Amino acid sequence: MDTNSRIVKPEKQKLDGGEEIEGGSKSFGYLPEELIKYILSLLPTEDLIKTSVLCKKWEYLWTSFSKFSFVQGSSDDNRSSFLKAVDRALILRDADIEQFSLSFTVKKGDASRVSSWTSGLVWRNVEKLSLALDGARSTFSLAPCLFTCATLRDLELYIPSKLKVPATVCFPCLRRLSLNSVLQLFGRCCQIMVNGVGLKYFQYKGGFLNDYYFYNSSVDKAEILIPTSRLRHVSYRLYKLLREFSSMKIFTTSSSSFKVVQTNASELLAQMPLFSNLATLIFEEKEVNIGCKGLLRMFQNCPSLQTLVCSEGITLSSDDAEDDGVLEPLPPCFLKSLKKIEVHAFLGNQEELDALKVLLKNAMVLEKLIITCSDSFQGRPEKLRDVNNQLADLPRGSSKCCEVICSLSP
C-alpha cells in the first residue's frame, strides 16, 4: 500500500494558552460559558434542550435559561419528541421560569398532560405565560392553581373551546390579559368578575358569550374585536365592557362593533361612556364607514382624541357624500385635539376620496394625514400621482400646516 495514501489523523495542537485544538478548529467546549449561553439562546427551545447530548459540560447548561418557547411543527412525526422536550423543560429544572410559550394541537389524552404542565409552571413562579391550544374538545380544563397564580404578570390564552375555570380567580400581579378565540369561560355562571387594580392591558377576540366586569380597573390599553353577528346580547356586553374601560388611553377595535350596537341596541348609543383620556383610536379588520352613526357617537365621546388609525381603509356612501352634515354635530376632538390620521389599505376609489374630503374639511387642528396604498392598488405609480393631485385640491379645515402623505405600501 502506498504510504502517500494513508489516512493521517490530525495531531492535536496547542494554543499559546495551552488549549488544545483538533484539525485546526477550536472546540466549542473551550468557549466562555456566557458566549455559549448566548449562542444557545438563538436556538428554538426544543433544539436547545437537545444540545445536552453534544457535550458533557452542556448536559444541564440549558436548565439555566428562564425563557422557553415551544411551537409544534405541522407534521405529527416529531410529536412524541416535542412532548418529551416540554416534559424535560419542567421536570429537569427547579429554578423559576420567567417566560413560557406553548403552541400545539391537543389530542385525546393530552388534557391531563397540559394540566400537569400548567401546574408545574405555577410551582416555578411563571411570570409570563402564553398558551395556544388548537384541537381542544368542547370543554377544556387547565390546572385550577393557574387561576390563583400570585406571580403571573402576563397571560395570553388562545383556546378555541369552552374553558372551564374555578369559582375563584385571582391574579394579584396581572398586568396584561389576552383572551383570543376562547368560546366561553365556563364556571358557575356566565359572569366573569376581575378585580383589576394592576391590569394595564386587556385584549379580547371572540363572540362575547360572557359578561365581563372589571372592578377598580386601571386599563390603559384595550383591544376588543368581535364578530359582526347582529346579536343584541353582543351589543349589551360590549357596552358594559366599554363602560369598565372609560379611562383607557389606547383603544383598538373594529368599526363594525359600533354598527352592531347601532343596529341591535340603538338606545345604548346615548348612554355610551365618556372616554376623557382616550388619545389613540385604532380600527382593524374592516374599513371604516365615516357615515356610521354609531361611530359618530364614539367620536363625540372622545374629547381628547389625538390620533385616528384606519388599518383597513375608509369609505363613505354616495348618499352620505352629498350630506354636508355627515359629522354633525361635529365631535369636540375634531375641533380641538385630533392632530394625526392614518389610513391604510387605500385603493384610491371615489368612496375613499369622499371620506378623506370629510375628514380634511372637519378636522380643524389636523397636522398630518398619512395614507398607505394597498398592495392591490391599481395603476401605480401613475394613479398615485393622480390621487396626490386630487388630495392637494381638497379643502382643509385646519389652519395649521396640514401635511398629506400618500405613498405605496413598502
UniProtKB/TrEMBL annotation:
Residues 25-71 form the F-box domain. It comes from the Eukaryota. Residues 1-20 are annotated as: Disordered. Residues 8-17 have a biased composition (Basic and acidic residues). PROSITE patterns: FBOX. This is Putative F-box domain, FBD domain, leucine-rich repeat domain, L domain-containing protein. It comes from Rosa chinensis.
